[in-house]
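Q: Start with the shorter request: fold the first protein.
A: Done. Sequence, then structure:
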Amino acid sequence: MNEAQLPLPEPPHTFRDDVRGFFAFARRDHAMRLRLSVAAGLALGAGLFLVLRQIPQVADLVGGSGRESKLTLQFPPEDDHRPRRNVDGVRVDSGSENPRLLSVMVENMVDARPISGLAGASLVFEAPVEAGITRMLAVYPASSDVVEIGPVRSARPYYLDWAAELDALFAHVGGSPEALARIPLMDLDDLNEFSRGRYFWRSSKRSAPHNVYTSTEVLRQAVLDLELNSQPDAGRWVFKNDAKSADRPSSQEITVPFSSESYKVSWQYDRDSNSYDRYQAGALHRDKDGSPIVAKNLVVVYTDIEVIDEEGRRRIRTTGSGQAVVFLDGKAHEVEWRKKDNEDRLRFYLSDGDLPDGSQVEVEWNAGPTWIEIVPKSTRVVYNE
């Protein structure tokens, strides 16, 4: 007798069976198909929205395409509260306010023109040397990018005092006997082309001695190679915001007659930019690359200047105190200059006429380049109020 054949057990019911059954029913029901289509469209739209929201942030992480999305564009506040750079009052990121300073002796002889690099300086001292010619000590933050500075010329004793007060690297080509004798006695980071020639170059397009140049990049390398102090130890001036446009005069002109017409300097105030354009020998003074030379602040310092030898070299008193005129915001202020010793910072104080109570306070400067013109007490500097 054959055994009865038992029925096979049914496979267990799964979620997959439910899904297949649901879609089989949906294919037969028109209303259900419509509901599914709407739901799928909503889900797809929501997904695309979430993806597109992330695109600007992803572009930022990889550098973007150079165009800013309106979704990520942020405008800086009207008032910049970052710290001011010590040498010129320019707003910089925190930690960058006290940069290493580089100073360079730059000549101004007619045969040396056009000069390179003055338009990029944060601070310039201009003073007479032999024969009524002027020479400049141009000062730069080490972080600046000035590709050519010069022609670089020889040192004079008074320029050493201005470099020392800033604790600046002092770049030059030789110097007068007095200057060269003083340099080893001073706490000065000296960079003489005669002994450190690799940090200068001589242009084949200019004749000697007007053919020596350097740059901020090369001078930065000198600071590293010679293991010099990375930051200066110089006192800072007091800086302020520019005067409001409504408080600025329409014009102002200052004329500094150093000697002959070739060295006659004038500064013309521009109300819109609240700055002074430099003119020399009757023409707008431009760097060799065409950049105009502009100052936010201008100072005329009166001091004792005398000729000391047959070569016409000068002795200029840099310490003590004396009269000066500060020009900023289109206005002139008679002030007193003070410098206690060679390494003390040159400072300027408002005179009694500027303050109702007769007290003196330090001048507050505009942020940007400052030019200091050093002249004998007998010089007649002409300017309008």
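Q: Next, the second protein, separately.
A: Sequence, then structure:
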Amino acid sequence: MKLLSPFRGLRPVAEKVGDVVAPPYDVVNTAEARELASDKPWSFLHVSKPEIDLPQGTDPYDESVYQRGAENFANMINEGILVRDNEPCYYIYELTMGEHVQTGIAAAASIEAYDKNIIRKHEFTRPVKEDDRVNQIRALHAQTGPVFLTYRQRDDVDQLVEQKKSEAPVYDLTSDEGVRHRFWVVDDAQRVAQFDEAFSHMDYLYIADGHHRSAAASRVCAMNENKAGNDRSCKHFLAVLFPDDQVDIIDYNRVITDLNGLSKEEFLSRLGKSFDIEQSAAAVKPDRKGQYGMYLDGQWYRLSIHDDLTNSSNSVEKLDVQMLDSNLIAPILNISDPRRDTRIDFVGGIRGLAELEKRVNSGEMAVAFSLYPTGLDELMAVADAGKVMPPKSTWFEPKLADGLVSYVLD
């Protein structure tokens, strides 16, 4: 089975790329997207969050939203803002955020491999979010948000990528968030064949981010297969894959609305049965597994889970986020389903510990927890075991931009 294939990417003409490229649809809300795109008629937010072009208050899942997105997408093509490559290509995509650099390859990933768990998952999806992506793909007849894949590093792939990067990129721009995006097109048939050969030696790929997008692509493919003529034109999903030694996972933190009816003293007393508790004069950013920061009533604490609670051989149970769930959030705060319970919220580490303090100090939340980042080796172990991680276990930075390249369903 061929895991990855080149494809005829639909992408901006070079002189318009800065006007088109936008943050991923799922990291900005409607109000933020409307502001970001207010003076940018070609911003890809008009495609990925088209409710910004409809009256305020429009349900983002309304059929009119998908129709408007399709109209905006078609307009960008008709006006020559987006142009499709003539031949199937691979694309090299480098992101630089501060000192961190990671370089991936944009490709068409096999839905058959996804369905057979050769492209491995580690998260459940939420039906409403999955349905949203299905409706978006069907309206546009294209996939516009890449799935972030990772793989175990290979020297042969690295060498091919570096060879291409010695040439001038077709795009080189820095986003408003300060992330530099550079992009190369691999359109030479010989070099495409070299990538194909290198990819043929990969055993598995892993979804790092984009479970809803990949699940939606699989569903759309199944819908088309069931049509008369067994149309399998959508047998791939848009992906960018990065070697595991370049992927950076940062912390994904928790804030809780209340202490489940406990006083501060009762809460700390119960906490002490599973954790060593130490007050801290400064905000606590954990520096090892089994350690947590907690912000409560204007005070930071350093929590260290008791050693006897960390010796599980289960790939999920020994995750820091699961140990926090199993020993604190569920038994003490009575939140047994973090996917659905509205008393818990999640804060990406990119926002910093000050965001946790802000949420608690405002009175919106009662307590916050900072976590040590989940390791990529832990993610792969969970996926290899066919298990599922707790929700919001990983936060990846930098984020892949929307609009750099799209996959059209022929």
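Q: Describe the second briefly.
A: The mean pLDDT is 95. The domain at 252-372 is CATH 3.30.1760 (Conserved hypothetical protein from pyrococcus furiosus pfu- 392566-001, domain 2).
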